[in-house]
């Protein structure tokens, strides 16, 4: 059987499974904690940021398409943007093309699953077949050209967009988004996760006040940053940059857990 046809058939099966699971899982996130969702937390925030506009959902997913295509062509691997950003957003766009009722579209796991499966079949097939058919010399060119462009989109364009959304949502939300976004940039290398968490915390405090739920949420966010900083060795790097002596117990703990930063 022709090699391209084999790749096409395998991609269609894989794409259907990816799209079905990712889209259904994202829709179930809107019903948590009554049911178990499945998806990246940033996906939920990005879907909400599009404000249920099919054009916005399609445009957002399309913005990451070139990054995914460049990674497939240049490295032969699918990025997390495929199942966390492109598939859910394009499935949402198709689902809401003629019906803006969220309960029947974006929040409907069954509807999102089938639209996501269709998107996955087409998307993965296009990515894999084009990557397999392009000569190696052109693959290198595509990676060299599209790679830097996609990096500019991810950082700093996307953080700026989300930070502007946080500031526009109010003073408290903007403050939380700014602080957590800055910390996320230091700890994780990208401010978007922190800004999204800041939006959630800020809006939660605006809507619910200082309740047990919001205190738990703030505590969970703080714990997330502390654990992330430790696992990435940010505490060691910070002490070194401040010319502060690193306690032996802290160095030993990092050595034991394999989280000692490397130069």
Provide keyphrases for this structure:
single chain; 263 residues; mainly alpha; 11 helices; globular
Describe this structure in words.
The protein has 263 residues and is mainly alpha-helical. It is built from 11 helices and no strands. α2 packs across α8 and α3 runs antiparallel to α4. The longest helix has 33 residues. It starts with a helix and ends in a 6-residue tail after the last helix. 35% of the residues are buried. The mean pLDDT is 87.
Topology:
Elements: H1 3-29, H2 41-49, H3 54-75, H4 80-95, H5 109-133, H6 136-168, H7 171-188, H8 192-208, H9 212-231, H10 234-241, H11 248-257
Strand content: under 5%
Overall pLDDT score: 87
Low-confidence stretches: none
Number of H/I helices: 11
In helices, the fraction of residues equals over 70%
* Rg from alpha-carbon coordinates: 21 Å
Which structural class is indicated by helix and strand composition? mainly alpha
User: How are helices and strands ordered from N to C?
Assistant: HHHHHHHHHHH
Largest sheet data: none
Q: Tell me how many strands there are.
A: 0
User: What is the straight-line distance between the termini?
Assistant: 49 Å
Anisotropy-based shape: globular
